[in-house]
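Wed. Picked up where I left off yesterday with tRNA N(3)-methylcytidine methyltransferase. The coffee machine is broken again, so keeping this brief.
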Amino acid sequence: MELKDFCTNEERTLTSEDKEKLLNQNKRLVSDYQARKLEAEAQKHWDLFYKRNETRFFKDRHWTTREFKELLAADNESPDIQNLLEVGCGVGNFVYPLIEELDVLHQRDKFFYYACDFSPRAVQFVRNHSLYDTKRMLAFQCDITTEDIQQHIAPGSIDIITMIFVLSAITPEKFSTVIKNLHKLLKINGVVLFRDYGLYDMAQLRFKSGHKILDNFYMRQDGTRSYYFEKNELAKLFLASGFEILSNTYIHRRTLNVKEGIDVPRIYVQGKFRKL
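Structure written out below (tokens, as returned):
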């Protein structure tokens, strides 16, 4: 099995078969009633997801310090503890590998960690972890599409926000509100480190008729939802909310196994955005 990643500004070129799959998705859309019900019950569906899967579903994200050098102590000469917020922390697959890596580098005090999630059950898994320490971390439940988070974090107090495979789970009409909330929390020159599903990812093309809610927005079998981002659309969202773009690109990943005839194309969109 071989993994190949490359960065590009180009969208995936669709085959005639790909185009046919996208057309078939339009044959039967999710009804307005069902779409409203999915939105109203979004927290319930994610809580059920973590009830079923507990801590087993997502792999630990050891790749984040490779992709986002801002997370490494060697890239920051400041002696002060920085505040890092992970939006959509899940069960801790990002924050705990980062803590372990920085501890090995003897940079235990680089960050104070804030970790929030929409699902109360996910937050409880984070709190139950053996590395959870209230002296260096605060995990809490909140809805990032509202101003709830300001009950836990003062505006203008965060140095780095990570948002990895989170915005795609939120209804597109609330994207702008979420980005503006991130802007309020950051210090001047604070950054958002972002990764999510990109347009025409394999998972998008696999959806059948009856799962499409809106353009590039879909319902999964378990009631959770997923959006697939176009790079320029993401840039406009951040620019409109007072950010500058440090980087914004597609990540194309191919999982190849020639012997077994496996060629799985995954597409992500990845960016770094700084508060002006």
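Quick read: The chain has one domain: 31-197+221-249.
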